[in-house]
What we know:
Chain A is an all-alpha fold. Chain A has helices at residues 10-14, 29-42, 44-58, 67-87, 92-117, 125-130, 136-153, 155-163, 175-199, 203-217, 239-250, 257-288. Chain A has one domain (30-53, 63-288). Chain A is globular and about 60 Å long. By secondary structure, chain B is of the alpha/beta class. Chain B has two domains: 3-106 and 223-262, P-loop containing nucleotide triphosphate hydrolases (Rossmann fold, 3-Layer(aba) Sandwich); 124-215, no CATH class. In chain B, 36% of the residues lie in helices and 26% in strands. Chain B has helices at residues 23-32, 84-92, 124-134, 139-153, 168-179, 198-214, 225-231, 249-262; strands spanning 3-15, 45-48, 56-69, 73-77, 99-105, 108-111, 186-189, 217-221, 234-239, 242-248. In chain B, the strands form two sheets. Chain B has a six-stranded mixed β-sheet, sandwiched between helices. In chain B, strands 2-3-1-5 form a four-stranded antiparallel β-sheet, with helices on one face. In chain B, α6 links the parallel β7 (186-189) and β8. Chain B is globular. The relative contact order of chain B is 0.17. Chains A and B meet through α1, α3, α6 and α12 of A and α1, β5, β6, α3 and α4 of B.
Amino acid sequence: MSVPSPASDVARDEAPRRQSRRDTPRGSPAARAWADWKETRRLWRLGVRLGWLDIRLRYRGSALGPFWLTITSALMVASMGVLYSRLFHMQLATYLPFLSLSLTLWSVGLSSLIQESCTCFLEAEAMVRSVQLPLLLYALRVVVRNAIVFAHNIVVPLAVFAIYHVWPGVNALLALPALLLWALDGFAACMVFGSLCARFRDIAPIVGALLQIVFYVTPVIWMPQQLGAKVSYLLYNPFYPLLEIVREPLLGRVPSLQIWGIALAISVVFWLIAVRAFIRARARLVFWI
Amino acid sequence: MAHICLEDLSLSFPVLHGGSRSLKKTLLARAKSTVAAKTGAVGGRMRISGNSAEVVEVQALFNVSFTISEGERVGLVGHNGAGKSTLLRVLAGIYETNEGTLDIEGDTHALIDPNAGMNGELTGRENIQLFACRMGMGRVATQELEKDVEAFSDLGAFFDLPVRLYSSGMSVRLGFALATVPRPRILLMDEWFMAGDQKFQDKARARLEGMVDAAEILVVTSHALSILRQWCTRIIWMESGEIRMDGPTEEVLDAYEAALAITPV
């Protein structure tokens, strides 16, 4: 058995040894979930890489790449803008910037993040079953992938702003912490919906159908002010504050502390649910997918 | 000192199919709650759990205990479904269980699936870069790795084509070249590595043996008894998720062959 090792050992010797096993079945499920998270943080580069690769592969062979998405959303915004500004009796110059921004935030932000979180673990089946990698890495991958698509699409409302000479000013910077909150919530969505959808395959379509309803009851294509005195009812819709904390700054306004407070509270509750769900599901996920 | 220590380790997992995949049907079934139990003879024991008639629990491992210490070369034998690959996955940390204890000292590397972690849409080269990223390699190391694997897998022009276009032999070559890069203290190996054409086999053997030599512990499953005889110092014979026999290579393999002769599988 003592055959000389094959040629070119250099690369292999440089491959760093992975340290001792971190997660032998010792410790509580919570401790193991925590170990999963620590391992994910260590491998964050890989998560980002996987997210990028997803995008590259999706548009491989198309000259425009991800900008195809930009073009479709531009077309969507243009056609809906013309139609709905008539239906709502609004000036195109005030309505179109609003609509282009809302529609983009909804479709490549909240909606796609939630929809894709459902397949977070399912799409990684082959890898989960054969390579020992932390599961939260796949959540990171979904968030990164969505962030990239988001960055490509945010160009559309910016172009519309330029055409109509609306400029949000420095207030727009307030959208950045809000977008970070979205990313965190998206990560939590992967933990909840990713786990649930791995176990029950009919949840993904249910989520899709519910999102469709939420789209209409959330002020995405209509403005909150159009509700008049009934606007406070919107606070019962968790998507409303989440949308507002990003949209308001980008329209040049400062969102109220109340809205921010509700958005934060919703996120904290959602995170608690997500962590619980993930701790319970983690060890079983590999058998479900 | 690398070691593996298992004590009374059991593993059962759900096999979900049909209605148990559906939330609606599961909720309805819970209301009816039919309880049934059934044990199968082939593979792991099966039991149909109480809640839903369609959630089948497979008892893949049952009270497995053994200790492997440094320097041991252990072979796992048993017919299909005896729990060999499941055990390997448990050792690799892919499957987890709460029943029993598992203590592993030393880093593990599992060769379970030749295309483990590979993306069929990416080219061979890109898959190597992905692999390097997984191993946390730097840029220089990645380039070295690329050259090494390119030379070893000998794929020619296919190296820059998507992996899904490869023939099965070609993807085994690439997978093999990559999988044999790390130098773990504990090496876990499924039997796939015997694939490939004759010329490649010889090359593969040299490379694999280099890796095996460097490892402090080897656990390998195979149906090729001659290879086990040559490589292993100890054999664990699995049957229906339990250890049927555990001992020195010749002793166990002779008993195993005798059993095979009586009841051919």
